[in-house]
Amino acid sequence: MSRNRRLVAHTDVPVRDPVIFAFPAAEGVSDAELVAGCVAGDRFSREVLYRRHGRYLLGLTTRLAGNRHEAEEIVQDTFIIGLTELGNLREPAAVRAWLAQIAVSLVGKRLRRGRLLRFFSLGLLGTGGAEDRGGDGVDGGRGLAGLAAPDLSAEARADLVLLDRALARLRTEVRMAWMLRHVEGHSLAEVASACGCSLATAKRRIAEAERSVGRLADLPEAPR
Amino acid sequence: MSRLRFPLRSALRDDVEDEVLHRIWQEIDARFPGRAPRRRTWSAPAVAVVVAGVLGASGVAGIALSSLLRRNEAGPLRLANGAALVAVEAALDGPRGASVALADGSRIELERGARLEPLESSGTTFAAALARGRAVFEVRPGGPRRWTIECGLATVEVVGTRFSCERRPGHLRVNVDRGTVLVRGERVPDRVRRLGAGEVIDILENPPEAAAAPSPAEAVAPAPVRQTAVDSPRAAVAGGPAAWRELARDGRHREAFRALGADGVRREARRLGVRDLLALADVARLSGHPAEAVAPLERILGELSSDPQAPLAAFTLGRIELDALSHPAEARAAFERALALGVPAGLREDAQARLVEACARAGATAAAASAASAYAREYPGGRHARAIEAWLSGR
User: Which of A52, B223, B277, B318 has its CA 20 to 30 A from that of B112?
Assistant: First the structure.
């Protein structure tokens, strides 16, 4: 009673005297438990799984796709695929990495399909698209420069524009591997996992990207 | 030497809005319409009843029951002890207000004399009416429910944040401490305002008209909160040279327009920052000079389009061009820009619908049909569906 305030309930309902418990809510449920719940068709588990990993995946896909609206669709598709296929997941505790792999694959497919190529091809055709894309700094489909933090210096923003331009010239799988490594800061093993390729292939792709990015964007080689 | 630091993620914005996440979840959730049975140990109310009965009146009962209820979070929102949430009133003559802890970790504090009445509660929605008084809402971020607080003069929508609503006769004040809320209402500028941390909005039922130009002393004097539409950080107290800002902040838009002087809006529009430009547009629009509001909004979209408020500026421009100036072609461009810039989730449906209207009124039949298809895909059975049909059929 000491923890309660004086409450006067509505006249047609009994006065409650709530006792406050420490309440761990969904934080106390592991990913593996959530996966089991999802497989059993539990809606709460699905939603908690989404709430736990959706924000991360939306940030990841936004940076990879360079476009928030595309990223929203990708996250939606990722969870629809993921929740449908969860029964095939071998390591339920690794569901986050598994969802990321699906998301990365979907970003790659979209890029390859050309749904975003109009942004990148504009730069190649010399219409000013790449410059504009990086220059106006909004996230409606403007690559990394459009996602620049507000306090980033003008010079760094200019570098991001150059980087966008360089990345636009790379093959999709090469670009994705480089971004996972040097934008997201993933380890090589994580890059390989997200890209669904071998460690050697991931290394080769990143090295290929670094050669092009360093030459075209006039950036130093990224740290290993 | 590069000016970038690796990994680059640290140099990029990472702002993911709760509203966006919630909207995505709704789309996902709609694809899984509860076709499979719930896991028994998580949801069977009978188990909860049996367990509670076995444990009887022991102190463990409440904890066990609340644990089960916690797992069944998809149901109605309850008190932290598992009891149903009912109307709550903090007695005016009590020693202090009321504090309500909820099962999802959220908390509501009612000041003395305040009354809150639950309206709807489900696994995805919690709606309540603040009948009177002041209440502080601390909503657990990332929670499964979208909160809606009806406050008479406006509705406040939120997913995860801390904010307060103070309702007095003819006056509503919404104050955001953390996160973001959407305030909707007929008396809210543009019918909707997005409030971030540290921002406050006051809404009056009957804002007095400015009868005459104020004296200089009146123009710069701090005025009590008593008018519509304040949208500024509390810390931003303008000084003498910014008289129009003070007036605008008090909702005295006609006086603010006069204080700006001849061609004042255009002059100021060339030099101000985004927040002031939006205020400037409000002054022009709400003082009956909608054409003057175009310049500050176009400057945001031209030179300051990286600002997070740019999509809102584009949306506002579209409404002015369409509703006040009858320039449907310009309105179409503005709504297209708003959508391209990423208009806030709470406005996206409106923007898509208004795009259809603008195209239809501009005679761009094919574009109108295309925009209508886009709307139908994204918002099947949306609230503007009938209006869109009417626009397309020329009614």
Answer: B223
Tokens of B331: 């309105």
With respect to residue B187, please indicate whether it lies within any of the assigned structural domains.
Answer: yes
User: Who's near B359: CB < 8 A, 6+ residues apart?
Assistant: B328, B332, B365, B367, B368, B371
- For residues B98 and B197, membership in a common domain is answered with yes
The domain that holds B142 is classified in CATH as 2.60.120.1440
Whether B50 and B126 map to the same domain: the answer is: no
The whole-model pTM stands at 0.41
Average pLDDT of span B230-255:
57
Q: Which residues in A lie closer than 8 A to residue B44 (C-beta atoms)?
A: none
Domain coverage including residue B188: 88-207
Q: What is the ipTM of this complex?
A: 0.77
B44 touching chain A per CB within 8 A: no
Dist CA B200 CA B32 (whole Å): 39
- Please name the member of B6, B35, B99 whose beta carbon is closest to the beta carbon of A5: B99
Could you give the CA distance from residue B266 to residue B247 in angstroms, rounded to a whole number? Answer: 18
* B47 and B126 co-located in one domain: no
Domain tally for chain B? 2
Residues 101-140 of B with CB under 8 A from A: 101, 103-105, 117, 123, 140
φ and ψ at residue B339, rounded to 5 degrees: -70, -40
In a domain, B132, yes or no: yes
Tokens found for residue B216: 């200089």
Pairwise CB contact (< 8 Å): A40 & B105: no
Highest average pLDDT, of A35-44, A94-103, B78-87, B94-103, comes from A94-103
CA distance B7 to chain A (A): 5
Residues B93 and B203 in one domain: yes
Flag whether B329 is in a domain.
Answer: no
Residue B368 lies in a domain: no
Q: How confident is the model at residue B275 (pLDDT cuts 50, 70, 90)?
A: confident
B118 or B359: which leads in pLDDT: B359
